[in-house]
Design brief:
Layout: H1 44-47, E1 55-56, E2 60-64, E3 74-78, H2 90-108, E4 113-119, E5 130-136, H3 147-153, H4 159-174
Antiparallel strand pairs: 1-2, 2-3, 3-5, 4-5
Helix pairs in contact: 2-4
The structure holds zinc ion.
Zinc ion binds at residues 37, 40, 43, 45-46, 81, 127.
């Protein structure tokens, strides 16, 4: 155990049976490399057709993430090229909270969901994308920060199940009025 490093196996939510040796932290770079699609140049989401999305409206588009061990992992993006929540123009910013709530409710309607985590990292792709991670009800070890890490560690669900869950989320969004 490296001095000052916590034994993460003490966390009920730690996904691994043993703790590996933490890597040494590299010194910070002076200038970070550009993220994918920065400034809208060669931006994959901007170039994607609506047909590639699970659900769309005039302002927002929703992607189903698969494969995954969890049903209903989706990403919400603004249709316009905006690079952070902080940069959302006023009209989109006003609609963002209600839209996040709508997506959470649509995912929850799948049933068997304990919580729907909302994450916005944005270190890879520049086009704003907000992750929704449903935690299966009763899976207490999956609570909190490590849920996405469990997502890498657990076996993926069969793709048909994931696609079916995605269709149900899209149906729920179509049937759900704005609040
Ligand atoms: Zn873009």
């Amino acid at each position: 155990m490296v001095m000052g490093v916590r034994d993460l196996t003490e966390f009920e939510s730690w996904p691994f049976a043993e703790t590996g040796s933490p890597r040494a932290l590299d010194p910070p770079v002076d200038v970070e490399p550009p993220r994918h699609g920065e400034g809208g140049e060669d931006c994959t989401p901007c170039a994607r057709a609506d047909d590639d999305y699970l659900w769309v409206d005039d302002d927002w588009r929703l992607t189903l993430f698969e494969p995954s061990p969890f049903l209903g992992v989706v990403l919400l993006e603004p249709r316009a090229h905006v690079e952070s929540i902080a940069q959302l123009p006023a009209d989109l910013a006003a609609g963002f909270g209600p839209m996040v709530g709508r997506v959470q409710r649509a995912i929850t309607s799948l049933g068997g969901i304990g919580n729907v985590h909302v994450n916005c990292w944005g270190d890879g792709g520049a086009h704003l994308h907000v992750w929704f991670y449903p935690r299966p009800y009763g899976q207490l070890q999956l609570r909190g920060t490590f849920l996405p890490v469990w997502g890498f560690a657990l076996p993926d669900r069969p793709v048909e199940q994931t696609l079916a869950a995605g269709r149900r989320i899209a149906d729920a969004l179509r049937g759900q009025p704005d609040r």
